[in-house]
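Weekly sync, protein design subgroup
Attendees: M.S., D.O., the rotation student, P.L. (late)

Item 1: inverse folding check
M.S. brought a backbone from last month's batch and wanted to see whether the design step gives back something sensible before we order anything. D.O. pointed out we never logged the input encoding, so this time it goes straight into the notes. C-alpha cells as presented (363 positions):
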C-alpha cells in the first residue's frame, strides 16, 4: 500500500468515527447503544498519555500501521481497525464519567396506546425518549412516528388495511422507509382483538407481504401476534393454511407473541416471572422447529398492583435482556389504565414517568 492510499484510508476511517462521535452515539457491545453521550475515555487509547484522546493519538496509531503495535483488536498487527478504535474515542478525556452514560438495550421497547381517542399518539419525541426505549410501536401505522429517535415499528393490526390509507399508502410508507420492521396482526386468536382464523389469515398475509415486500424487498415482517391462548396452535395452523394455498412457506423475519402470567393480587412475582420465562423459552423452541427467525414478546405485564408490577418487572426484564432466544420485548404499556387494567402504566397523562416508568427506563 502506498503512502497516499494509507492516508486516504485513514481519512475515511476518521470521517466515519467522527460522524459517530459528533452524532452523540457510540456503538458498544452486548446489543446496546449509548445515546446522548460523547465517546468514552479509555486509557489504552490515550497513546501519548496526556489525558485526552485527540489527533496526536490517531496519528501515532497510524504511524505504526503494519507493525505489531498498537494492536487493540488482537489480530497481531496495527491495522485500520485499530486506528478506528482510537478515532472513535476522539474528544474524550480522563475527566469524563462513564457512569453518566445512558445505555439503552436494543431489545427494549414499549407500546404507545392507540386508544383513548388518540391522546397518547400526541406524545413527543423528547417525551418518549425519557423511557430509554430503543424501539416502540402503537398497534397501528402513524407516519410522523417514522422520524422519531427511537425506532418505530408500524403494525398492520388486522384485515382493515383501509385504516392505514389502503394498500397504496402502505406501499408508499414502506418504500420511503426501507429496511424497516413491520408487525403483522394483533391477537388474531382472540374474538375481541383482530379475530382472524388461521385459514383467513393466510390469504391476508399473502396480500400484505406482497404490498410491503413489493415496495421494499428489504423490509422485515414479524408475524402472528397470537396471545398465550392461541400459541402455538394459531401459528401452526396458519403455516399449514399458507402452505396449502400457495405451496410454499410465507416470507417473514420472525414471530411475535403476548404473554400475561395468570395472577391475582397475592401471586408471587417470582413465580410469575418463572412462568414468563417458561413461555418464552417454549415459544423459542417452537420458532426454531418451524424454520427459525426472530422472536419478539410484544406485550407482557401482570396487571394486579403497582407493587407486583414493579417486582415482576425487576425479575423478568433482566432475564429478557440476557436471554439470547428473544430479540425484542415491549412492556404493556405507556398507559394501561385506559382499558381498566389495575397496574402497569409507565407514564401519567402529562407524559411524566411513573415510578414504574422510571424503573423501566433504568434497564
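Designed sequence read out in the meeting:
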Amino acid at each position: 500500500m502506498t503512502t497516499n492510499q494509507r492516508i486516504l484510508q485513514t481519512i475515511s476511517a476518521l470521517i466515519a468515527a467522527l460522524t459517530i462521535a459528533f452524532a452523540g452515539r457510540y456503538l458498544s457491545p452486548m446489543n446496546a447503544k449509548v445515546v446522548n453521550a460523547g465517546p468514552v475515555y479509555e486509557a489504552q487509547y490515550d497513546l501519548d498519555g496526556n489525558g485526552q484522546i485527540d489527533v496526536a493519538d490517531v496519528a501515532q496509531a497510524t504511524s505504526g500501521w503494519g507493525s505489531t503495535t498498537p494492536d487493540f483488536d488482537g489480530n497481531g498487527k496495527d491495522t485500520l481497525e485499530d486506528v478506528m478504535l482510537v478515532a472513535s474515542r476522539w474528544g474524550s478525556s480522563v475527566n469524563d464519567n462513564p457512569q453518566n452514560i445512558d445505555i439503552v438495550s436494543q431489545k427494549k421497547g414499549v407500546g404507545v396506546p392507540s386508544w383513548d381517542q388518540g391522546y397518547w399518539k400526541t406524545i413527543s419525541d423528547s417525551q418518549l425518549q425519557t423511557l430509554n426505549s430503543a424501539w416502540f410501536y402503537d398497534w397501528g401505522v402513524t407516519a410522523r412516528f417514522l422520524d422519531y429517535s427511537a425506532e418505530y415499528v408500524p403494525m398492520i393490526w388486522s384485515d382493515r388495511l383501509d385504516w392505514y390509507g389502503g394498500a397504496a399508502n402502505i406501499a408508499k410508507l414502506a418504500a420511503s422507509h426501507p429496511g424497516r420492521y413491520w408487525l403483522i396482526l394483533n391477537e388474531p386468536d382472540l374474538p375481541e382483538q383482530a379475530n382472524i382464523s388461521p385459514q383467513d389469515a393466510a390469504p391476508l398475509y399473502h396480500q400484505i407481504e406482497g404490498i410491503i415486500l413489493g415496495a421494499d424487498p428489504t423490509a422485515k415482517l414479524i408475524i402472528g401476534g397470537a396471545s398465550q391462548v392461541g400459541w402455538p396452535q394459531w401459528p401452526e395452523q396458519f403455516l399449514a393454511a399458507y402452505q396449502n394455498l400457495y405451496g410454499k412457506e410465507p416470507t417473514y423475519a420472525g414471530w411475535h407473541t403476548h404473554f400475561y402470567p395468570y395472577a391475582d393480587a397475592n401471586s408471587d412475582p417470582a413465580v410469575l416471572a418463572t412462568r414468563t420465562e417458561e413461555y418464552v423459552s417454549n415459544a423459542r423452541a417452537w420458532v426454531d422447529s418451524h424454520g427459525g427467525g426472530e422472536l419478539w414478546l410484544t406485550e407482557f405485564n401482570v396487571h394486579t398492583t403497582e407493587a407486583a408490577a414493579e417486582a415482576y418487572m425487576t425479575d423478568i426484564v433482566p432475564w429478557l435482556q440476557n436471554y439470547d432466544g428473544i430479540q425484542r420485548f415491549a412492556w404493556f404499556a405507556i398507559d394501561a389504565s385506559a382499558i381498566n387494567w389495575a397496574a402497569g402504566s409507565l407514564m401519567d397523562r402529562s407524559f411524566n414517568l411513573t415510578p414504574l416508568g422510571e424503573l423501566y427506563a433504568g434497564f
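Discussion: The radius of gyration is 24 Å. The first strand starts at residue 26 and ends at 28.
Action: P.L. to compare against the previous round before Friday.
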